[in-house]
Amino acid sequence: MLVIGVSFACYAPSLNSLQDQAYRSAVVIEGEVRSSPENVSSREPYSVNVKVLDVWPVNSGGLEREQLVTVGDFGSEAPCTTVEKDHKYIFFMDPTTEPLVFKASYAPVDASEPELKKDVERVLCEDCGKFKAFFFLPAIHSQRTIRATVAAMVM
Questions:
Q1: How confident is the model at residue 5 (pLDDT cuts 50, 70, 90)?
Q2: CA 26, CA 123: separation in Å to the nearest integer?
Q3: Which of 81, 111, 134, 135 gives a 20 to 30 Å CA spacing to 2?
Q4: DSSP string spanning 109-145?
Q5: Is 93 helix (H, G, I), strand (E, B) or coil?
Q6: How far is CA 123 from the centre of its chain?
Q7: How many domains does the chain contain in total?
């Protein structure tokens, strides 16, 4: 049996999927690529060193500005993207067993457009108001669960 899979990390995210990626990722940072391997083969996964420029407290993973972290598994498999040295990106990551080493959960997004960073901030803000988080709940929650939760918060 032949199974064909498509990685959505290969495509530029829409606004909703960008917010969804931020919501679902364990760690989200804005960072600048400091080093990447030379002669990257499209078949081999690779890692890059990233200087942390900004973190969101909700999904910081304990990281702070100016730290140097390693983000990996770029290449032919998800997330199948390339990143350029000295460019800024928003990275969506999951922790690994090693400190300061992360696996990319989605393709990074070029951070040169300020609106994209604001879209991520809308999802990851700490003090947005008690009802703001309900706009970004994953689709797996039923309307009844959401109504019951909102009703409990109002009481």
A1: very low
A2: 13
A3: 81
A4: EETTSHHHHHHHHHHH-SSS-TTGGGGG--TTS-HHH
A5: strand
A6: 11
A7: 1
Q: Would you give the DSSP letter of residue 11?
A: S
Give the global pTM. Answer: 0.68
Each residue's pLDDT tens digit, 72-95:
876 555 456 778 899 999 999 999
Q: Give the integer Cα–Cα distance in Å for 105 and 94.
A: 6
Residue partners of 138: CB distance under 8 A and separation at least 6: 20, 23, 24
**Inter-CA distances, 90 with 59, 131, 142, 155, Å:** 12, 26, 30, 38
Q: Is 85 domain-assigned?
A: yes
Does residue 67 belong to any structural domain of this protein?
yes
CATH of the domain at 92: 2.40.50.120
Name, in order, each residue with C-beta under 8 angstroms of 147's C-beta and a sequence gap of 6 or more.
none
- pLDDT at position 7: 38
Structural domain containing residue 25: 6-124
